[in-house]
């Protein structure tokens, strides 16, 4: 009777805990969504940054014309005169997801525009990512750690920076796909279910469709499989978790047009194929060992290893031949930059010029993950108590993501989920120990208050006093055993354990020892719980501040605070609106590649280069034009049929991300293709200057003239608030370009190429005068017309 009551109360407690967990997860999803809405509340519902404008434009085309037109879309408004095949050069996961959401909303008679769906896609998937983190961490260390990790990920600044409302980039859905793929891999590893293995391949396919960072998955999972094999943790579950992913996942990845045969032809994927061969050799060895006698097993092992080594040697030779035939050894430029941080700066300046590809600073770690940096080591220790296949994967994920985040600041985004998982495990374990200690001391205190009871109940009192500790020990171990139970011990390990138990010396039972859970002093436990709550409160305050102030401002609308209030700089949209309403539809606009996506999406004008950066020579041509004197630049732009040139200038308002600060990269990229552009010609004593000490080459280049034309009229001195000094060349005129529009704060300036026919008339008039003068001289020699 008593046992049935205990079972009933236990089932009721579990049911209540399940309902409470669902409610908490719903609240976490609401927090993850709402904390990313500061940009909409403070500014407006607008697309942020540069790349999201291209994704928004593609989503508009997809929703208007359908999927088949999207796959065959040739965009003639970008990379003039080359154009771009959109369907074969983009990762379609984001646009297909947003397009499906828009279509679903309209089918339910919810009148949402495409822009609204694009703005709120990232906050919605941030909630999904938090729930996926719960599932992943639950498989590693239980539901308590899962809820804690999900709550931390919902607010972590590193993830907020790429998923605020309006940040319509590939990472908006890719981080969810990354975490969910890892969850299904661990779920398959713990259960050995082929159903979850198939779902894992489909999740990997969605990740391939969404982001080029899928190569991180297809390299991290083989590393974990190889680690398990080396450490003697091979099992059939490991084979089921890995083999279908390589076969089915690779076939599905090859279906994505932007990937295609790269899924089997590039070096980023060769590691997975090599581990695929190794795990089959190991599986064959274990299978033979189970059906043969030890003597025959040795012979068979020798044969299998011989054949396996021969096959591996052939495969490695083929891979080496394929890799050696490629100039980059089969690796992409970005992958080589991750393996060798100095590669991009030496050979591919276009990659090094992107701010996201620079190494992070130490303050950026504290800004993006805050107190998690101090909780991660404790989480690593907790993963080893006890160590399982799932916890070893979590540790490996953390170690690799820490390395890659140290190479490229953009990959702090990949580190964020790993840091949240480790921090969730650390906090869950810490709260478990502390609350257990407090509960034990309180129970002990109430038990001691009954010491004056009759002596008859002495035995029952002593038995009851030990019961709470035993119950706590059981409840503490049950959660850990849930994870350990999921891993079935292999036959080899079972045999070893059996031999150890049979050969172990028998100890007397009198000295019976039980492993008791860790119990801390009451005062230390209460103080520690209080400090952890304060630490969590400080983390929440930092996350809210980062979401509201640091990462909410869209780059297309800028603000600044001064003594006279808030100032809003809407110069970008002002310039794009002018281009849209005051230029012809077929006019070509030249600018640095950063502004190509925005110009195409907002001004609807053809651009020469954009943020895709697939053609280094074309970008170098624009960089060479900006680095050349006015006449040479006019000839380059005229050969590209350019009619307008757009430059971004921040010297008046103090906007640091202007073209003058990016100009050194224009020189380096242009000089990498056209040798007559030399970086040393633009430097004075190794310094990049635009003041009176600047070099003549710098003062006469097109970028300097288009940026500082009439700048001296603003204050009479020409003081640059970004560079913090007066410009060198103040009074000059433009001969081949004319200013047609400058925004209110001088942040965007648009120039028009002067027509060639005006210059031809002047040349023909001079040639006629030269002909008359030469013919008037008797016996004079007729000079050759230099303009013909």
From TrEMBL:
Domain Oligosaccharyl transferase STT3 N-terminal per the UniProt entry, residue ranges: 19-422
Chief localization: endoplasmic reticulum
Region (Disordered): 454-507, 758-788
Chain intervals with Basic and acidic residues compositional bias: 476-487
Membrane topology, record value: Multi-pass membrane protein
Record's subunit section: Component of the oligosaccharyltransferase (OST) complex.
Name listed for the protein in its UniProt record: dolichyl-diphosphooligosaccharide--protein glycotransferase
Lineage: Eukaryota, Viridiplantae, Streptophyta, Embryophyta, Tracheophyta
